[in-house]
Amino acid sequence: MNVDATRSELGRMLELLGDERVSRLCREWVAQDPTNVYAAHVRVGQLLARVRGVREMDPEQRLAIEHGEGPCVLMAQAGSGKTRALVHRIVRLVDREVAQESILAVTFGRRTRDEMNERLVQMGIGEARVSTWHSLCLQILKQDHTRWEFWEVDSHNRARYVLKDAIGHKHLDWASADLGDVVSYVGMCKANLLLAGSDQALAYAESRFGKSQGPLAADAYVKYQELIEERALLTYDDFLVFAWQHLSTDDQVRRRWAARWQYILQDEAQDANLAQVVIAEMLARDHRNYMVVGDVAQSIFGFRGSKPDYLSQFAETWGARTISMCRNYRSGAAIVRAANNVIQTAKVRAPGDMIAERGVEGDVSVLSSRDFDEEGRNFADWVSELVGADGAKYGECAALYRANAQSRALEESLLSRKIPYVVVGGGAFYERREVRDLLSYLRVAARHGDVMESVRQCINSPFRFLGKAFVQKLVDGWDSAIGPTDNVRAVARGGGIQRRQVESALEWSALVEELVGMLGEGPAGALALVVNRTRYIDWVKRDEGDDSVENDRAQVVQELLRTSVRFATVESLLSYVDSAILVAKKQGRGKPAKGRVILSTIHKSKGLEWPHVFVAGCNDGVLPHAFGEPEEERRLMYVAVTRARDNLVLSYVRIIAKSSGEVDAEPSPFISDAMGQVDEVQVTDLEPALALHSAPRVLTPGPF
């Protein structure tokens, strides 16, 4: 805009602002130099954004923004505008002449951090610090020139393989160890500040592994820490542990860091583990200007050491003021009622129900399908109907599920309808490592596609001592005139190969040749042979490990075995998979994620929202999961329900295919809870459920 147009726009903005003092200062500034109108326009725009934001706040949000000094806890339920309130709280502090650099806000994810920083910059706040826990702790370690200053950040999770070495034959030789369990044990120790070699770490190991195996787990932790030190590898867990150790060593150091920030705001406090709670206390104890924000009903990371207790007990621990933010501005009233019903019987929850504020009803439906394949087809039909008849966009539709293995049927159905999609986090089903491993055996046997690459993929999966050196010899001597098994035998019988490698190579070759004889049969038998002969599931559980139910790789293997029975031959399965991968890549190429249907685990969906949400696999044993902690499973369902703005579908199946055959499946008890009904819900059509009604109920939060 030119000067005159900008001056006109500035006048309109000042009128909206309604602040005589600011208007007078702007007029004087512009009178001195007409070109100052541009800077004045920007500054007034920022002030107007601040004022408008506060004017539009509800009473509870304004209480949070205007809170003075001392500790405060915001019990902010889903969709209550907590991020907006936090941002305006920071702005208000700056308006009170609190130095921007003395304000620290801490959150968990980079996405939320970036969103908050962007909003602050838009309102003229550029020096207040919004940080993640890990970046804050890394700053402490580096700026104080600690001994960890130049350690290599473990951005590729190499520490997992360091721990695998610690329990392997080179060190403890703990043959029966389950890597996933040991990884979880070490992670929980660090989350709870139980140091390697401590009596507390040993006691926890014995409580988890038993008296006989517990000392081995504790020894594995010690050896792992020694190997980490030797490699100077800085893990994300150790960001927090080492920062805590550094701040604990000298109270002067702690006081110096605590003095940097006079106000600390902690977002997503329900996900805090003990290490984060303790570090925050060390930084806030002197000034006590400490505000925490969270929703105990959304505490879903117990496998990482978080507990809702830290938030629910904060007011008592700190003698803090409590502000309850229970107005939901995200979801329709029916969805809010369903969420209230789901969480109503939780042992730890907010002190009151959410209140729907959008002024729309929204739809909640229950869908019954025969099995997961039909559920996938029904999901694709649902998306097509929304987009075709109702004018929705693909990016406004999401399917949420408990575990990554559940995405397969959903992906295939979307592919068959040429509906673009993106899988958040876990990756497309047919491109997951365990699927690629097992199908590579079939590719080698059938000589389908790039045989050499398939040999690379499967020859050491499971582990057979046929590592990089062996594979390099195989590549160097590869003779395309003979088959893959003959090439492997030739390397095995050559020089410089250990005896155990020779045995493994010959076993692998024999297995592949047995598979060659099964090529005319269906692929289910061939895959079952590979899984059983190699004990693949035992390997992924014991040697590779899973950090949560969500990432259970054995479930992915079982899903591959289940879906393989649909194909008459090995070749037809492999051709289908090749086509599925190619089509998925073509559909996604050049399309932003916003233009594609979202497939995500419930954990990965936290903090996100969509107009239309389909919760798949709402079955007893799936959601809630048979191996999940019951209270956390309920909170997961609450998180899934509260992702929806306008339209929510709770979907369950009547039959689940297992290795022993098909078995009857029961709907999740959470469906009846959500619908406010005692009897089993049987809704087969995608029609809006009856209006949900629930009497207000107040529960007092308490310990587990």
**pLDDT average, as an integer?**
87
Shape field? globular
Helix-residue proportion:
40-55%
**Uncertain parts:** 678-704
Beta content comes to: 5-15%
How far do the termini sit from each other?
A: 60 Å
| Count of DSSP H/I helices | 30
Structural category is: alpha/beta
What profile does the largest beta sheet have? Answer: 6 strands, parallel
The multimeric state of the shown protein is: single chain
Number of strands: 18
Radius of gyration: 29 Å
Task: Give a quick summary of the entry.
Helix content is 51%, strand content 11%. With 704 residues, the chain is α/β, with parallel strands linked by helices.
Task: Name its key features.
disordered C terminus, 11% strand, six-stranded parallel sheet, alpha/beta
Please characterize this protein's 3D structure.
This protein is an alpha/beta fold and 704 residues long. The protein contains 30 helices and 18 strands. The strands form 5 sheets. A 6-stranded parallel sheet has the order 3-2-6-7-1-8, sandwiched between helices. α7 packs across α11. The radius of gyration is 29 Å and the shape is globular.
